[in-house]
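Input structure tokens:
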């Protein structure tokens, strides 16, 4: 049985926001890349994007370029985008399909899609050269509910161990079976932590999101994850609304037709360190991938997913859900950009969190724990 805690009950007195440098310092961002993004399991999107053998995407994690692909045998793999000859970046497209092999454009070293070096011109003349010693460097990869995760570490913590609190938590939502309906990328002029913190509380909802607040009353929810790198819980969808959409009606079929009664009236919001925010509604799921590109700038890629049986149904109205979040997201980016401006001031100093902000306070603790080498 999942236990839910009302937000105010997990408040720890004395909780305060973080100092200015945490949001402004390039050195600190470099440290975050090292300690957080290069060490932990980063989400890189949906496995359905790599449907056929040879399909690939290129992703940047902690300043590294990674090729994530489906190999000829159907397996998903992640490789550092670095040729084993003289180190050249092999692939500069953001996505595509490799035919049979992966070839470096410089001197034509050629790799199989499973990373093995299979062609290296003139290297047969080099004494003791053995192709088997020059496979592409791989990164650890795991799939959860249709999401791909990659870990750059040479000794990654086993995914199932790291992800234990999440592993079966959302099974009932059939996430792996959902189809992508819409994608959008936002360029947010704010530190990545402000984006996470903002997502973690709805104290701001009556002020910032008048539309959302009528559907999801900000005090209605409770959290099932209240400490650690995964945080969040649900909010009630206020009747007669059926979902978080512009019209208040469901935009399509349930993500799982056998969803329990409670879940049909709830929307779940989770932050998953280090780079995923997941929003689950009875009839659709949307998620966000955060990539910090500067201390004051974050790229946020978002997708909406629906049950594939909606396709062809005249009642299916995905723009009802897409529009709802497009409005809400922009309100959020506006306010986090204003937060960025304020916390950059010489006079800004940490301020007190209220009991309704127990989750962002817990997020800050999880972040600081990761920075000090914990959670591993
Ligand atoms: S650097 Fe790639 S083949 Fe030479
Ligand atoms: Fe918001």
């Amino acid at each position: 049985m999942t236990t839910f805690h009302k937000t105010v009950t997990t408040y720890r007195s004395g909780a305060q926001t973080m100092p200015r440098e945490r949001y402004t310092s390039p050195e600190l961002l470099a440290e975050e890349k090292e300690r957080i993004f290069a060490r932990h399991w980063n989400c890189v999107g949906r496995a359905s994007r790599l449907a056929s053998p040879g399909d690939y995407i290129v992703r940047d994690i902690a300043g590294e370029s990674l090729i994530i692909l489906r190999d000829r045998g159907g397996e998903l793999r992640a490789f550092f985008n670095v040729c084993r000859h003289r180190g050249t970046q092999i692939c500069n497209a953001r996505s595509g399909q490799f035919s049979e092999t992966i070839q470096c454009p410089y001197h034509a070293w050629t790799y199989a899609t499973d990373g093995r070096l299979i062609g290296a011109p003139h290297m047969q003349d080099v004494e003791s050269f053995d192709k088997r010693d020059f496979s592409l460097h791989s990164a650890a990869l795991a799939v959860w509910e249709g999401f791909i995760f990659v870990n750059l570490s040479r000794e990654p913590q086993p995914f199932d161990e790291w992800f234990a609190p999440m592993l079966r938590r959302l099974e009932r939502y059939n996430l792996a079976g959902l189809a992508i309906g819409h994608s959008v990328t936002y360029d947010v002029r704010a530190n990545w932590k402000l984006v996470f913190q903002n997502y973690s509380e709805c104290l701001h909802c009556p002020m910032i999101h008048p539309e959302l607040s009528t559907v999801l009353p900000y005090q209605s929810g409770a959290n099932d994850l209240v400490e650690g790198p995964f945080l969040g819980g649900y909010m009630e969808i206020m009747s007669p609304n059926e979902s978080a959409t512009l019209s208040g009606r469901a935009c399509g079929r349930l993500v799982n037709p056998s969803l329990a009664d409670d879940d049909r009236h709830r929307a779940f919001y989770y932050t998953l360190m280090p780079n995923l925010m997941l929003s689950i509604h009875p009839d659709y799921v949307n998620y966000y991938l955060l990539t910090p590109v500067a201390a004051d700038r974050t790229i946020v890629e978002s997708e909406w997913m629906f049950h594939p049986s909606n396709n062809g149904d005249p009642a299916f109205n995905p723009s009802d859900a897409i529009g709802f979040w497009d409005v809400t997201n922009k309100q959020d980016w506006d306010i986090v950009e204003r937060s960025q401006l304020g916390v950059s001031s010489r006079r800004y100093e940490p301020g007190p969190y209220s009991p309704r902000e127990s989750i962002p306070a817990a997020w800050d603790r999880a972040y600081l724990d990761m920075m000090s080498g914990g959670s591993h």
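The mean pLDDT is 97. DSSP finds eight helices and 17 strands in the chain.
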